[in-house]
Design goal:
The complex is a heterodimer of chains A (250) and B (494).
Chain A: H1 2-13, H2 25-34, H3 42-87, H4 93-138, H5 143-152, H6 159-183, H7 199-215, H8 236-239
Helix pairs in contact in A: 1-7, 2-4, 3-4, 3-6, 4-5, 4-6, 4-7
Chain B: H1 2-12, H2 17-25, H3 31-38, H4 44-47, H5 56-68, H6 70-91, H7 96-103, H8 110-118, H9 132-146, H10 148-152, H11 154-165, H12 175-185, H13 192-202, H14 213-230, H15 238-244, E1 249-250, E2 275-276, H16 280-292, H17 295-298, H18 301-308, H19 315-340, H20 360-366, H21 368-426, H22 430-437, H23 444-453, H24 456-462, H25 468-472, H26 476-493
Parallel strand pairs in B: 1-2
The chains are: A mainly alpha (250), B mainly alpha (494).
Chain lengths: 250, 494
């Protein structure tokens, strides 16, 4: 149930609109349990596969929609940044405000895209696990061929989003280097929640990282087909008490 | 059959470039799919650039594609060497419109070449349902009719097309589709993936109901493949399923210069909307078209569609995309308005991001330094997550590859031991045993261990994930062949 719990936690922390788009891991697990181990009928298998297919369809449509929106937004952000330089003088107050807003938007945008990739990965992991359970329970060999199909699905082929993320990072560099120049004059006040651009995104990102690390730390079924343990660089916030579970960073 | 195909291919090699290029354009919608699947050496952007320019990457693509293609590769090796060079010469001498009209996708060099070589090697089709054929014919010829260029050379090209299509041993006009159908009709679990690829590549023309039948057909096929082949125990008649479902998942490729778009297909769904996967290039064209039409407000979907001039793109795609585009445009504007009126943002912020941040003016006073620092930290975390996700994804892919390989080995070994047992009973000659137990191209070390130990797992343990590279470097054709054999064996056992 560990994965199920972690998945649930990720879903709780995720962007609200995404909550029902994740894998129905629990339901699938129930289905597998109900399938008789002694006599795995083709009907049961067909039902299982049908459910899997509908899940995959759900992922695909959501993913493709999001991808489309990200493409649009990325372009718009790019245009906005270009225009930013043209519209204002660097010393303008309005410029600073625009800059700040743009920075936040970029960071949010970047975060959302990364979370989409995470979404894809989490769902893939869930599918792989459930297929493994099915194979184990029924002795059938569904996992290998099915996972081949999954590997080709749009929701798993995240190359475009990755590319957008990298583009975003390139866009960010000049923005943030400019920022440091402007900041020197800024008055310093207490850091408030406004400082972090988008708490839910940030929170979800951290949760995702933490989950990844935990999932890969080792389990009873850890074997040669499992992913190696995850080594993250030291992040203070990962150990901060505000997080649900303190993770020892290896 | 294959020899016949070989001859026919050779016969056709000389020039009608158009027919060849038509044929070759078929796989292009799926180029990206396979690219991502098989991790070709091509980059996303460059691989499908400019259908009209034969590029040096073409042959590179050809070789990589040939290398990647599972079943086909093994069968088409003799021909592929023959045909590729000539095909690559031929491919881009024609404009893409003809090709796109026929196959509703852009013709880009690598895929056509690959396709060309693949087509002759489709497994001989079992008789496809008659009901499909008229549809196929109509879709093919309707497309033929739409191309003005086609009209000019119709006579000659028709013959050539027919000749070419005859490669598959099917009816003249149906042959390529036929082959594709037959690809779909393949029942063996072991060959599902390969044939799925095939059918996707071929982009079978099935429906006649959709606005853009060509593209829809392609995706319907792919969709069928995904859904049908998933269930191992159910050998649904593919043709029947194909006829039923009219909900294609669409993948559009640009018809002219830009690099192509992305992957297709999802599992069978109740969704009636044709699904399109937008790419950067496609969006770029969209934006250009919109700008030409004086902005997103004034632009109409129809106008944009016409200006974009992308084969297979429907007005629905453009409509929904335009809607999203307008939304994205308006949000920054409303944000600016809010700032001007210095009201905090709430409802007008983007749907997906409830912004807690005060408007920019406040931030200017509040401590840009801290804000920026916090943002930097956030970015760092996000970058980390991204990096880890990428790594994880690569690992997952390799794990699956590894698993596939091991499965093959296991089954080969079983087969070996079976034949060994039987040959001992029959007291066969030593050579027979040797040939049967021989696994060409597997690492000899692994091989000997398998035969000695009779335990695949022990062998596995000697390979950590880090070593999986060695396994992955095995010639893919042989991997696939072994996998096929193993899967067949597996099928028998099951």
């Amino acid at each position: 149930m560990k994965f199920g719990k972690r998945l649930k936690k990720q879903i709780d922390d995720t962007i609200p609109e995404w909550k029902d788009k994740f894998l129905s891991y629990k339901d699938l697990k129930k289905l597998v349990r109900f399938i008789s181990a002694a006599h795995p009928s083709t009907k049961a298998e067909a039902q299982f596969v049908e459910l899997l297919n509908s899940e995959i369809e759900k992922f695909n449509s959501f993913f493709i929609e999001q991808e489309e929106e990200f493409i649009i937004r990325q372009r718009e952000l790019q245009d906005r940044i270009e225009k930013l330089g043209e519209r204002f003088e660097p010393s303008d107050a309005e410029y600073a405000a625009e800059m700040a807003q743009t920075r936040k938007d970029i960071v949010n945008f970047h975060g959302e895209m990364v979370l989409l990739i995470n979404y894809s990965n989490v769902n893939y992991t869930g599918l792989a696990k459930i297929l493994k359970k099915y194979d184990k329970r029924t002795g059938r060999l569904l996992r290998l061929p099915f996972i081949e199909i999954v590997l080709k699905q749009p929701f798993f082929t995240t190359e475009l989003i990755s590319k957008l993320v990298k583009k975003c990072e390139t866009m960010m560099d000049p923005i943030f280097s400019l920022a440091s120049a402007v900041e020197d004059q800024a008055e310093t006040k207490e850091m408030d929640s406004a400082a972090i651009a988008e708490p839910s995104i940030f929170k979800n990102t951290v949760a995702a990282l933490v989950t990844m690390q935990e999932l890969r730390k080792g389990s009873s079924t850890y074997g040669h087909f499992s992913l190696p343990p995850l080594n993250l660089p030291e992040f203070d916030f990962l150990q901060s008490p505000s997080l649900p579970s303190p993770i020892p960073i290896q | 059959m294959s020899s016949q195909s070989i001859l026919t291919v050779k016969d056709i090699n000389p020039p009608d470039t158009r027919s060849h290029s038509c044929q070759t354009s078929v796989p292009s919608p799926f180029h990206n799919l396979f690219k991502s699947q098989y991790k070709t050496s091509l980059s996303d952007d460059n691989s499908l650039s400019s259908t009209n320019k034969p590029s040096s990457t073409k042959t590179e693509n050809l070789s990589s594609k040939t290398h990647d293609k599972p079943i086909l590769a093994e069968r088409e090796i003799p021909i592929s060497h023959v045909s590729h060079p000539s095909f690559s010469d031929l491919i881009f001498s024609r404009s893409s419109t003809f090709c796109t009209s026929l196959y509703s996708s852009s013709s880009t060099s690598p895929e056509p070449c690959k396709y060309m070589s693949n087509l002759p090697f489709l497994p001989h089709p079992s008789p496809s349902p008659k009901s499909l054929q008229p549809q196929q014919k109509s879709s093919i010829f309707s497309e033929d009719g739409t191309s003005s260029e086609m009209a000019a050379e119709e006579e000659q090209s028709d013959d050539d097309v027919k000749d070419f299509l005859n490669l598959n041993g099917g009816d003249a006009s149906d042959a390529s589709f036929h082959g594709g159908n037959c690809a779909k009709n393949s029942l063996a679990m072991s060959e599902q993936m390969e044939f799925q690829i095939l059918s996707e590549q071929l982009g079978i023309a099935i429906t006649d109901n959709e606005e853009s039948p060509r593209l829809d057909d392609i995706y319907e096929v792919a969709q069928q493949e995904t859904s049908l082949e998933v269930s191992p125990g159910c050998h649904q008649p593919k043709s029947g399923a194909v006829e039923e479902t009219k909900e294609p998942v669409v993948k559009v490729q640009l018809s002219t210069t830009r690099s192509a778009s992305s992957s297709t297909g999802s599992a069978n769904s109740a969704n009636n909307k044709p699904r399109l996967r937008w790419t950067l290039e496609l969006h770029e064209r969209f934006v250009e078209a919109v700008n030409k039409l004086d902005g997103c407000e004034k632009a109409t979907p129809k106008g944009v569609l016409k200006l974009m001039n992308v084969e297979g793109l429907t007005i629905y795609h453009v409509k929904s995309h335009l809607q999203k585009y307008r939304l994205a445009k308006h949000l920054p504007e409303t944000k600016e308005d809010k700032k001007a009126s210095s009201s905090s943002s709430s409802s007008s912020s983007e749907d997906k991001k409830p912004l807690l941040v005060n408007n920019g003016n406040d931030n200017g006073k509040k401590g840009n330094l801290q804000v920026t620092e916090a943002l930097r930290m956030q970015i760092e975390v996000q970058k980390q997550l991204h990096e880890q996700l990428e790594i994880q994804r690569q690992l997952q892919l390799r794990i699956e590859e590894h698993a596939r390989y091991l499965q093959k080995i296991l089954e080969e070994q079983q087969k070996t031991s079976d034949s060994l047992a039987s040959s001992i009973k029959i007291t066969s000659t030593p050579t027979e045993i040797q040939s049967q137990s021989q696994l060409p191209e597997t690492p000899s070390q692994l091989q000997s261990q398998l035969i000695e130990d009779n335990e695949v797992t022990k062998v596995n343990k000697k390979h950590s994930l880090g070593d999986s590279d060695n396994d992955c470097e095995l010639p893919k054709e042989d991997n696939k062949r072994q996998r096929l054999e193993a899967d067949e064996l597996n099928q028998e056992k099951n």
